[in-house]
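Much of the work behind modern protein science is quiet bookkeeping, done one molecule at a time. The protein below has been through that process, and both of its lines are reproduced in full.


***
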Amino acid sequence: MPLIIKDEYPETLFREDGKRLDGRDNNELRPIKMEVGIIKNADGSAYLEWGNNKIFAAVYGPREVHPHHLAKPDKGILRVFYRMATFSVFDRKRPAPGRREKEISMIVADCLEPVLFLELYPGTSFEVFIEVMDADGGTRCASITVAALALADAGIPMKSLVSAIAVGKIDGKKVIDLSGIEDKAGEADLPIAITWYNEEISLLQFDGDMDLNEMNEFLDLAKEFLKSIHNIQLDTLKSKYIKLQEKTSKNKKDEDKKGDK
């Protein structure tokens, strides 16, 4: 893929062989890697590599609400803090959180709150800290996905996980999982998140040019690939406990051997 400097984009977002600039087919996800339990002093944590995106999420709570006037007597509150490292994008960003970061913090909280049993934790708060170390398109979808994973790792009661993906249109063709250049230079971008306990849309944003029939096609396409992302989330959580089980079993065998001596 050629280096893109600032707002200089190629005339076409497809190669001569019909593939996208990063070598993917239209209906192909970028490589995805997930891991949980990587920040030891957090109640729950997760790490996600999605294409060139590299994102950490850490969860703390339930704990006392500060400032106190934000506490709710009938349920807990969810607070999300999305931040991008100054070196995460081509042009160094300012350290202070910008309007976009505040907007995405609110979006992620709105997506995740429906799956949490906050009524079980009145007067307390759960805080999710998301740090984007490297950004390359679709960070809001990736952040929703990794934050849901971190909440599950924290052992917080949840109705289901939440998964998100962006679909869109580039050079008149429907594609899934837009990269950074496709997001900026494409014709349409449609980030979508789903809550799996009821399979309802938890996030739907739109930017670009698309008719109603195309949008319906995009929604069907997104759901198909959201299932793949959901399966990766589930496998990631399962792998942690399989490793713990194997470690416990090994320790028990070592202790039995010592006892036999």
About this structure: The chain is about 30% helix and 25% strand. The domain at 32-248 is CATH 3.30.230.70 (Ribosomal Protein S5; domain 2).
